[in-house]
Amino acid sequence: MLAFTHMDASPPERRAAALRAQDFHEISARFGANAARDQASRCSQCGVPFCQVHCPLGNNIPDWLLLAAEGRLEEAHELASATSTMPEICGRICPQDRLCEGSCVIEQSGHGAVTIGAVEKYITDTAWEEGWVKPLVPLRPPTGRRVGIVGAGPAGLTAAELLSREGHEVDVYDRHDRPGGLLTYGIPGFKLEKSVVMRRVQRLVDGGIRFHLGVEIGRDLEFDALRARHDALFLATGVYRAREANVPGAGRPGVVRALDYLIASNRRGFGDRVPAFESGELDARGRHVVVVGGGDTAMDCVRTAVRQGAQSVTCLYRRDRANMPGSAREVLLAEEEGIVFEWLAAPLAFAGEGADGPVTRVEAQRMRLGMADASGRRLPEPEEAPPFTLPADLVIEALGFDPEDLPAAFGAPDLAVTRWGTLRTGPGLATSLPGVFAGGDIVRGASLVVWAIREGRDAAAEIHQYLARAASRGLKEAA
After folding, report:
1. Which residues touch 377 (CB under 8 Å, ≥6 apart)?
2. What is the pLDDT along the chain (479 residues), one digit of tens a residue?
């Protein structure tokens, strides 16, 4: 496996920026069979696979790359699916440049990383086409135990699949009208086409998992009643409370939250009627758009605005490019699509005519990086420079997300939280309430999809063991 010495890394061809910015289809073509085999053969099969070490799921990456290089795609798919419930989704949206590919040994030696994500996507898309993705069927006899999962995002869906395999009955509750969480409504189609998510969901439905959609716990169904009808619960609600810019004018018309904006766009993609989009409130067409923030959500917003036909799109971020939390690959793609970045800049005010008029401009301040905080990250501080102004009749705040107050929402004051508002869990992802487990962003804070899948997998194993112990105790008492 020395192909990397004479063969360059070659990702799938991307559509030209001018073309891809006109629609919400995925921007990259899929590998052909020969290209996938060639690129997989670049893996050096190194003795210490740092790609696997730095994958939150511990995927057996060198092994399935070797199988793909040998043309044994069905076996490669089986191996990729052994550790991941959503390999084709991770292949599309994982920040591989920060995880597996960024840790690739031949990348460190200057030869260019193996295109792991693109090969993973090719393997699993081929598996769907060839019928290798098996129906979800229990691997054990029915246990008679029932598990409730709150949240149909990647953590919840993963736990649902794995618990169903163990023979448990699984019910999934979600406030939205479609499963998938941010996979469905938060991530734009040009990164993850929704048909990819829906076919995964349909496999779970066909496997007998019951979805209760449009149900908000604490409003439509009491938390105590939910606990009473299940033998165990898994809370995977994610974090949805948007952080807001604490500057004058933050409440003006035309200043919107990132998730509201992205949900409206994705609903339009499904063909839904979205009044806030139809009124122009959440439509960027013909407008000067400023997105405040520097994470992947901010990149999703700027690139969505381009596709909606914005007149101009600017990303305002208070740190520099090297300290941007989002994927460097996403920044490059955004620049190709014409987005302007104002680095080391922060908003001072969202201004407009009168006290309550719509926003017309962003007044901003130049920043510099000062001393590092306790985490080692340098803190931005105002530069001694005059403010500057950006035209803006749509401002999108993409400043991150905090957890909602679940104890209050659920009417469960004994549900312990951390000082950040995330759910407090002990060993085995157990919360302070007996039989109630939690994982994903509601425990970790806003994080990556691959970490949510990992915690869904871990939670499923812990819940299965919890139910097995409960059954064992019941048998002993009966005896």
Report:
1. 323
2. 678 988 999 999 999 999 999 999 999 989 999 999 999 999 999 989 999 999 999 999 999 999 999 999 999 999 999 999 999 999 999 999 999 999 999 998 899 999 999 999 999 999 999 999 999 999 999 999 999 999 999 999 999 999 999 999 999 999 999 999 999 999 999 999 999 999 999 999 999 999 999 999 999 999 999 999 999 999 999 999 999 999 999 999 999 999 999 999 999 999 999 999 999 999 999 999 999 999 999 999 999 999 999 999 999 999 999 998 888 889 999 999 999 999 999 999 999 998 889 999 999 999 999 998 888 888 999 999 999 999 999 999 999 999 999 999 999 999 999 999 999 999 999 999 999 999 999 999 999 999 999 999 999 999 999 999 988 777 656 54
How far is Cα 105 from Cα 52, in angstroms, rounded to an integer?
A: 11
- Strand locations in 121-185 (E): 146-150, 169-174
Cβ-based neighbours of 306, under 8 Å, separated by 6 or more: 21, 313, 337, 338, 339
CA distance 241 to 129: 38
253: tokens are: 């018309």
Q: Among candidates 448, 469, 173, which has minimal Cα distance to 327?
A: 448
Whole-angstrom distance, CA of residue 58 vs CA of residue 177 = 32
Spatial contact of 103 and 54, defined as CB atoms under 8 Å apart: yes
CA-angle at 164, arms to 159 and 168, nearest 5°: 110
Alpha-carbon distance of 272 to 279, in angstroms, equals: 14
Q: Are 186 and 239 in contact (CB under 8 A)?
A: no
